[in-house]
Amino acid sequence: MQEDCRAAASSGPADGARVLRKAVESGQFIVAPGVYDALGARLAELHGFPCVYMSGLSVTASLLARPDIELLGMEEMVRQAGLIASAIRIPLIADADTGYGGPGNVERTVRAYAQAGVAAIHLEDQASPKRCGHLGGARLIPADEMCARYELAVDVRDNDDMLVIGRTDAFKVPGQGLDEAVRRGRLIAATGVDLVFVDGITEPDHFKRVRDEVEGKLLASVVEIDAPARTKADALREMGYSAVLFALSGIQAAAGALERLMASLAERGDTDAMFPGMMTYTELNRSLGIEHYHRLWDKYGLPKTT
């Protein structure tokens, strides 16, 4: 099934929304690794994934070396999404935070992501400034305002194929928890969004309850907090979820590799011990598509020097 999605995506990022919508509506189970730049997305595509996910935490960490507390604005996030979408031929799902303001901001956000070639966005029910859904301590907007946010997003998208995902962060909000997350998930499902996303949960029983009590198509996020993830993609597929994001795996893996490299270089004065885990220069250029540019140079030549 993932092969079908990749084959359909061969026409490029402009068709990503149509491809992703067809895959979701046909019942294909989507596994999307989290990325924060074009290189990560390119590598995911080369390894056969049907789509990728741009995580707000990952982008904030990579660009600012700061936590996910809404330090990046809409234009910065859209710019990064556009760079990622332009580098791949598979659909991109992107974090759009809270929509960055009131109704006018949400409208602008939805249309800007669509123009950048993004196939799907998720909007959350946090008040600004938001926090990463796994940090805890978030503040929620009222449920009626939440529903209005998602109804607006569905109504104003210029590209009818672009998917709108409604996300609730109620689970880790003090005094709310799974009961409120499920209640909000039901309300979100009735707004016309394409997928419902209950963030912050990690336990199989919690994912199962959400699936049992929230109608419609569901998206899940698998996150390795301080240990391997407790819920696996296969289990989510069996529960009836439509898609799963490995939201932070990419940035956590990259940060771990860089930490080990810097520590080894500082201690030893060379990179010999780390080299077996590094991509070689040749492999890197091959992943970047250097052969395509060699063919261009061979066919059209290089500028002549005088």
Shape: globular
Q: Low-confidence stretches at least 5 residues in length (pLDDT < 50)?
A: 6-11
Mean pLDDT over the residues: 91
Beta-strand residue percentage: 5-15%
Rg measurement, Å: 20 Å
Distance between the termini: 55 Å
Question: Helix count, per DSSP?
Answer: 13
What kind of sheet is the major sheet? 8 strands, parallel, barrel
Number of strands: 8
Structural class: alpha/beta
**Estimated helix fraction:** 40-55%
Tell me the strand order in the biggest sheet: 1-2-3-4-5-6-7-8
Helix-strand pattern: HHEHEHHEHEHEHEHEHEHHH
Question: Would you kindly provide a written description of the structure presented here, covering whatever features stand out?
Answer:
This protein has 306 residues and is of the alpha/beta class. It is built from 13 helices and 8 strands. It has helices at 2-8, 16-25, 38-46, 56-64, 74-87, 103-115, 143-156, 177-189, 204-213, 233-239, 249-268, 281-287, 290-300, and strands at 30-35, 52-54, 92-95, 120-124, 163-168, 195-198, 218-221, 243-246. The protein has an 8-stranded parallel β-barrel with strand order 1-2-3-4-5-6-7-8, surrounded by 10 helices. Helix 10 links the parallel strand 7 and strand 8 (243-246). Helix 3 (38-46) runs parallel beside helix 5. The longest helix is centred in the last third of the chain and has 20 residues, at 249-268. It is globular. Residues 6-11 have low confidence and may be disordered.
